[in-house]
Design a protein that fits this description.
The complex is a heterodimer. Chain A is mainly α. Chain A is about 80% helix and about 0% strand. Classes of the chains: A mainly alpha, B mainly alpha. Chain A: Component of the oligosaccharyltransferase (OST) complex.
Chain lengths: ~110, ~800
């Protein structure tokens, strides 16, 4: 299916071109999200190697990674200037909410880690 | 307030200062109304305290009370509450020095489910006890010396006031402050909520309903504002709900359902992502923190819906993001490509998941949840759950008893939610529909329906009042204004009649619930349906003629009056009974039957501390809390076999029953008999469920043996097995049974293995002691038990494990 591969190549090219146009601060947040998800995958792979005991540590580790990823995505949504719904939300307020939510998340993680 | 937003803009900018003043007055009035609503919610629940006394009701609250006492004991040692010290003497006798909140998590209770015991820390929902404990500690630190019992008794009314304020907030998010106030007032009085939150009903639902409404409010607030701060608060409120009640699974399934609904109806927005995704992650973690839930928050099917929707939401968010990046043509190409690859991947994952889930016999759901989804499940597989009266489906009259007038205000509220349809109002409709289904399965869950019904009725009533009062307001000036406005309207009628048609039909439905004849007149009055400002406004407001709107307002007020009268009657007459004390009015005055407490007090003062008491599981919590003796089974009903053992003992003849009880180290047996006073829920009426539960585990107990021609009788026509069994010989002694209305079947018998030690004043509770074995058994071998076992093996047939 040559048309499919050429289509795929055109697709990837246009995707990367469009993505290169996003502002730097959003790209940093995206990088952080990718890092968090990668850490979660590493932990899952480790769990596959050594087994699930102690389960609460595994759970808290994976959920902390996924949690910070989700919160970072929320931050990105709120800080993104293209987003009409959040145009009167100052980015400092968005970041403060992000920090607060992370605090609560990590407090719970520390408690559950065992 | 009930004033709509439009008139302030309608009056023009010259009235800006007046508008601000009106808003300020409105705000003050609103706050004052909320205060009154809180006082109303608190005081309507005080009938039980006024009519009887400040005592803890029923069965389950006694357990919660005991747990609260234990969690507070180290704190209370330092205060000077003498009543409490008297009660705690038994604790100090056991030399248990460690208590308090931290030791509460590790508490293993050896005074119940003898000889198994129960790990309290890991099996109880701590929200209620910790809340009441905190309240008590706060009051004591302010030097207000209330006893623990007082705080426990009044926790429920305080939290119902909080719940009505939370309802105001939730409805305000959906429809505005007017509807909020209406809904809060209705919730303060709704009978089905009162039934579980009277003063003295110290049970989980007292705080759980507040947590439920507050969580929903924070979810809707996050959905409306998109603020991560409220998302954090939402997760914390959900944590409080998980601590309080097992019904938290309703939240964690309803919110994903709503998210799915929003995605499917095309209402996906980034606010939806912010409202849902942090809740799932934080909520799962916080739920796993509570020992009762633990790893169930990721392993059981009740939570899988939230994870599934989490994944779906991320996929949808990604799709929308890429759609924003690409041109439409390329996006179509991307979609076809992804669908081909993605479908194959999804199939594989789905197959793995389904095989994992299907491998467990209950598909990962707990028994209680399955009995909710399939109403017939419990009667087939779990007779214990099926025997609880709260778990039966409700009858139609119980809907009218529980939510009264709201039952027919709710449909108009649903319609009002669709004009306009927002995320919040779709959530309310979904909440109502699901809670109606679950309330139809189990009468206890009408409690979850109550807030939804109140909110939607509040919306309906508020919309109705809005229209009617607006009609009155704009029709009240002299007839010149009327004719001039009518002139403007008539000219714009042909253009706008189409727009008004739908609005009129909706408004006429909400308004003409009680007066169907008005509907015909409404259609004729169509030309009047437009605002007095003029044809520049796009949305014409509905204005009705003065007379019908006045009649409508009066009718609605009378309707609310009926509702209030019913609620106060229900709170005073139906739900104020503490169930530990019964009253009976006769021509000679008021008789009070305090038999239960009399029996427990006798046990407490006349038996050894380590004596074991056997009774049916209903009375377990009360016995442990008030009599302070070890029991065999109690209301937690976590071990079916143990309950079946007690059930078998109650259904067997004296000798077998003695053997069973002796093997459990039981010293005293407690039975409840209502024949003398006409008390209907005594052990004889509960006997069939004892037989069923016992027969579910021990096959030698068969239900047919106790029924004559399929009917349960204890009079002269009772079966021999029935007339010989332990519960019968222990309870009966009088001639005529007032509870069942006929003469007892067997009189004048002598008990050989048990002796009666105590009967209460009205014969309601009877306590029997196991007679010790005779030292010398005349004419029989000492190895009687062993030979009997071998003979049973040889005979085959019915194997009785107790011989």
């Amino acid at each position: 299916m040559p048309s499919a591969t050429s289509d795929a190549r055109v697709l990837i090219q246009s995707l990367s071109r469009a993505y290169a146009a996003t502002p730097t601060n959003l790209k940093i947040i995206d990088l952080y999200v990718v890092f968090a998800v990668a850490t979660a995958l590493v932990q899952v792979a480790y769990m596959g190697l050594v087994g699930t005991f102690p389960f609460n540590s595994f759970l808290s580790g994976v959920l902390s990674c996924i949690g910070t990823a989700v919160l970072a995505v929320c931050l990105r949504i709120q800080v993104n200037k293209d987003n009409k719904e959040f145009k009167d939300l100052p980015p400092e307020r968005a970041f403060a909410d992000f920090v607060l939510c992370n605090l609560v998340l990590h407090l719970v993680i520390m408690n559950f880690l065992g | 307030m009930a004033e709509p937003q439009q008139p302030t803009a309608v009056r023009g900018s010259g009235e800006g200062g007046g508008g601000q003043f009106r808003n300020a007055v409105g705000g003050v009035l609103c706050a004052f109304a909320l205060l009154l609503i809180g006082v109303l919610a608190f005081s309507i629940r005080l009938f039980s305290v006024i009519k009887y006394e400040s005592v803890i009701h029923e069965f389950d609250p006694y357990f919660n009370y005991r747990v609260t006492q234990v969690s507070l004991i180290s704190a209370e040692r330092s205060s000077a509450a003498s009543i409490f010290c008297q009660r705690m003497e038994s604790f100090s006798q056991k030399k248990r020095k460690k208590n308090g909140v931290y030791e509460f998590w590790n508490w293993f209770d050896d005074r119940t489910w003898y000889p198994l015991g129960r790990a309290i820390g890991g099996t109880v929902y701590p929200g209620l006890t910790l809340t009441a404990g905190t309240l008590w500690w706060l009051l004591n630190s302010l030097n207000i010396p209330l006893s623990v019992e007082t705080v426990c008794v009044f926790t429920a009314p305080i939290f119902s006031a909080n719940a009505s304020w939370a309802t105001y907030l939730l409805t305000k998010e959906a429809k505005g402050p007017g509807a909020g106030l209406m809904a809060a007032t209705i919730l303060a009085m709704v009978p089905s909520y009162i039934s579980r939150s009277v003063a003295g009903s110290y049970d989980n639902e007292a705080v759980a309903i507040f947590a439920l409404i507050f969580t929903f409010y924070l979810y809707v607030k996050t959905l409306n504002t998109g603020s991560l701060f409220y998302a954090t608060l939402n997760a914390l409120s959900y944590f409080y709900m998980v601590c309080s009640w097992g019904g938290y699974t309703f939240i964690i399934n309803l919110i994903p359902m709503h998210v799915l609904l929003c995605i499917v109806t095309g209402r996906y927005s980034s606010r939806l992502y912010i409202a849902y995704a942090p809740l799932v992650v934080l909520g799962t973690l916080l739920a796993a923190l509570v020992p009762v839930v633990g790893f169930n928050s990721v392993l059981t099917s009740e939570h899988f819906a939230s994870f599934l929707v989490f994944i779906i939401l991320h996929v949808v968010a990604l799709v929308y993001y890429i759609k924003g990046l690409l041109t439409p043509r390329l996006f179509k190409v991307a979609m076809t490509f992804v669908i081909k690859v993605g479908l194959a991947f999804c199939y594989a994952v789905a197959v793995i998941l389904v095989s994992l889930v299907a491998s467990s016999p209950t598909k990962g759901w707990s028994g209680r949840s399955l009995s909710l989804l399939d109403p017939t499940y419990a009667s087939k597989y779990i007779p214990l759950i099926a025997s609880v009266s709260e778990h039966q489906p409700p009858t139609w009259p119980s809907y009218f008893m529980g939510i009264n007038v709201l039952a027919f205000l709710v449909p108009s509220g649903i319609i009002a939610c669709f004009f306009p349809l927002s995320d919040a109002s779709s959530f309310l409709v979904l909440y109502l529909v699901t809670s109606v289904y679950f309330s139809g399965v189990m009468v206890r869950l009408m409690l979850v329906l109550a807030p939804a019904a109140c909110i939607l009725s509040g919306i309906a009533l508020s919309e109705a009042f809005k229209v009617l009062i607006r009609s009155m307001k704009f029709q009240r000036p002299s007839s010149d204004d009327d004719s001039s406005t009518e002139g403007d309207e008539v000219s714009s009628v042909p253009a706008n009649s189409m727009k008004n048609q739908s609005k009129t039909s909706v408004k006429s439905e909400t308004v003409t619930k009680e007066k169907p004849s008005k509907k015909n007149r409404k259609m004729d009055q169509d030309p009047e349906g437009s605002s007095p400002v003029g044809p520049t406004r796009e949305q014409k407001l509905l204005v009705l003629p003065c007379g019908p709107s006045f009649v409508g307002i009066m009718s609605l007020i009378v309707l609310c009056g009926f509702y209030v009268v019913h609620c106060v009657w229900a709170a005073a007459e139906v739900y104020s009974e503490p169930q530990i004390v019964h009253t009976y009015r006769s021509p000679y005055g008021l008789h009070v039957f305090d038999d239960f407490r009399e029996a427990y007090a006798w046990l407490r003062h006349n038996t050894e501390v380590d004596d074991k008491v056997a009774s049916w599981w209903d009375y377990g919590y009360q016995t442990t809390a008030m009599a302070n003796r070890t029991v065999i089974v109690d209301n937690n009903t976590w071990n079916d076999t143990h309950i079946a053992t007690v059930g078998t003992a109650m259904s067997s003849p004296e000798k077998e029953a003695w053997e069973i009880y002796n093997s459990l180290d039981v010293k005293y047996v407690l039975v409840v008999f209502g024949g003398l006073v006409g008390h209907r829920s005594d052990d004889i009426n509960k006997f069939l469920s004892m037989v069923r539960i016992g027969g579910g585990v021990f096959p030698n107990i068969k239900e047919e043996d106790y029924l004559r021609d399929g009917i349960y009788r204890v009079d002269a026509h009772g079966t021999p097995k029935m007339l010989n069994c332990l519960i019968f010989v222990e309870t009966d002694g009088t001639g005529f049974d007032r509870a069942r209305g006929y003469e007892i079947g067997k009189k004048h018998f002598k008990l050989t293995h048990f002796e009666e030690v105590f009967t209460t004043h009205n014969w309601m509770v009877r306590i029997y002691k196991l007679k010790p074995q005779k030292n010398r058994v005349r004419g029989k071998l000492k190895l009687k038990s062993r030979s009997k076992t071998s003979s049973t093996l040889k005979s085959g047939g019915k194997t009785n494990p107790w011989q």
